[in-house]
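User: what does the whole thing look like in 3D?
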Amino acid sequence: MRRRRELGRGVAVVGAGMSKFGMFSDKDSKYLFVEAFKEMLSTVDKGLNPKDIDALYLGNFTNDFFVHQGHWGPIISDLIGLTPKPATRTEGACASSALAFREGVFAIASGFYDMVLVGGVEEMSKRNTEEVTQGLAMAASPYEVKVGFTFPGVFGAMATAYFAKYGASREHLMNVTIKSHNNARLNPKAQYNVSIREIMNQKIEKAKEKGNPIPTWRDEKEFLRDPGANPVVAWPMHLYDCCPISDGASCVLLVAEEISRDFTDIPLHVVGIGQGSGKGLHAKEDLTYFEATRYAAEEAYEMSGLKPEDIQIAEVHDCFSIAEILHLEDLGFFKPGEGYKAVEEGLTKLDGAKPINTSGGLKCKGHPVGATGTGQLVEIWKQLRGEAGERQVPIKNLRIGATHNLGGTGGTCTLTILERR
Amino acid sequence: MEVIPFNDISYERFLGEEKLMGSRCRKCGTLFLPPRAICIKCHSTKMEWVEMKGKGKLAAFTCIAIGPPFMTREGYDRKHPYVSGVVELDEGVKVVARIEGVNGSRPETIKIGTPLHVQFLHRGEGGNSTTFLAFRPL
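Assistant: Here's the predicted 3D structure for the full assembly of 559 residues, as structure tokens:
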């Protein structure tokens, strides 16, 4: 029988940084990691000598295929002056840096290291869409790939099963998209920091300039229903249901809890970590949830002694709009079949009872796959410390935040819970 | 008699012979499709081959407008989406497959629960030949 998980000693986050996410023709992934590392250094309140970092754990998924260089750990380590300290690359598809984070936590909790840098990096935009699709399919089940499934296709199929079981529709997915854009509008690091309304206005202006017929969308949903503006990718997933192709890097600094106050008066304590793995579509008992997320959540909640209702704010892996709804249910924030209603009621908005993806999520902040896990932690770092600026959630006594990262089509899922004490 | 290995190579060969073959645990009776060499329920490795009847119903689907190169070579594109889905067989197991005989441009006409039967799509020749598992409405 599995016993309750616990760390050998406490671990805390004392710094966090990320590059801007986007498609950059003039920046490679090394440069982006430098941006993330520089920002991380600037967030350590009482300062840090990088020479004190004991090891690097780096999440990265597609380098072998996209950059033709697989051994990225030591290259990034050398880049930021950490050699000859050890560098280890972790691979968990889109959850690669959440795994780096776990390894870093274990390394400190075991007593082996006192200070570890964990991060992720990915460079995707210099390949065409076909190559990116092929590269990402390396993380899907081979059975799915053979019969033509793409990533949006797998999530699209899960959406049809969800719609049939619970009576939801495409209209409910649109609520997720609109919210993500409204949040990302307030995030200068986001790839699409623009609301749907602003995109509509831009398109109307462009039509006027060119003398084309002026679109007459009455509201955001009418825009999202317009197949010209929002074409099908893998029905019911349309363009605005899907995260973009992105470049980016992120990192956080972990130290042993007992020395955390040497670096900041506001360390964030790692109180829960969970990881699960899951099966392909054909072997799922039910197509409307991820068993790997449920397992990861159970482990993290049990370890922390917290319940889903104790999580005040969360970043969840919204690679596709339907995914955000499924995660809300798998993480226990809402009952199965109730997630889409909660989003419709506005409970997950920035000023709602349970703000989700205040960064804009993968959909709008961007999804440089290996950088996403620690990128999510950067957002929770900012929110729990009250440093999220315009998008700071208005929750009083904000103490507990979580990040949920998913790799592949649910093959690897993690939940991490941070606490400000 | 040598047992045919319970792996993807055998599974694909059977598809080429127009047989949809799974494996069943001889200890606890659990059925697996595609075949597994280890029962994930009781961890027995005593398996036997079982042929599926090839009838089931649609459990989930997607109409794919942007597909991989091997699908675009068959003529599928944004204007002609193909359909991939999950089929729940009468035997109780599920399988992923291409869904034929439905209109990928009109997803609203495709219904979960639609009864389907198996179809084997043979593509390519010689060493490059392969068989895609498909299902179509009865």
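In plain terms: The mean pLDDT of chain B is 96. Chain B is about 10% helix and 40% strand.
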